[in-house]
Amino acid sequence: MIGPGTGVRVYLACGVTDIRKGIEGLAGLAQDQLRQKPTGGAVFAFGGRKGDRVKLLYWDGQGFCLYYKVLEHGRFPWPNVGDGAVRLTSAQRAML
User: Fold this and answer.
1) How far from 15 is each of 2, 5, 6, 65, 84, CA to CA, in Å?
2) What is the count of structural domains for the chain?
3) Strand pairing of 10-13 and 64-70?
4) 41: which DSSP letter?
5) Is 87 within the bounds of a domain?
6) The whole model's pTM is what?
7) Which structural domain, as residue segments, surrounds residue 48?
8) Which residues in the chain show pLDDT less than 50?
9) d(Cα 71, Cα 56) in Å, to the nearest integer?
10) Strand 53-59's sheet: what is its strand order?
């Protein structure tokens, strides 16, 4: 898989995101809710209502990359809005 290198910052949008949003909508959420520049080189992760879907938004320097994963079985463990800041382990980042 082609993607960001090691040491990249990953921001999780806690709570539920409307997973139907595309690049423009997710970039807006990264800027408005997460208070981060969407073109800053970080990965932004958004989880769906059922917990079985995740979208990752990443600026590669030339344009946005949007990764979409749907689990056949199981759910992604996703923090709620009230959980505050969440730090991912290197193993959790690798799974994303």
Assistant:
1) 27, 26, 26, 22, 11
2) 1
3) unpaired
4) S
5) yes
6) 0.82
7) 10-95
8) 1
9) 14
10) 10-13, 43-47, 53-59, 64-70
Q: Quote the CA–CA distance of 27 and 75 in Å, as a whole number.
A: 24
Tokens 């898989």 correspond to 1
CA distances from 60 to 29, 30, 40, 66, 85 (A): 18, 15, 9, 10, 25
Cα dihedral across residues 27, 30, 35, 41: positive or negative? negative
- The DSSP line for 55-90 is EEEEE-SSSEEEEEEE-SSS------GGG------H
Instruction: Please report whether residue 40 resides in a domain.
Output: yes
Tokens of 41: 């080189």
- Burial 70-93, CB ≥16 within 10 A → b, else e: eeeeeebebeeeeeeeeeeeeeee
Distance of CA 22 to the CA centre of its chain: 12
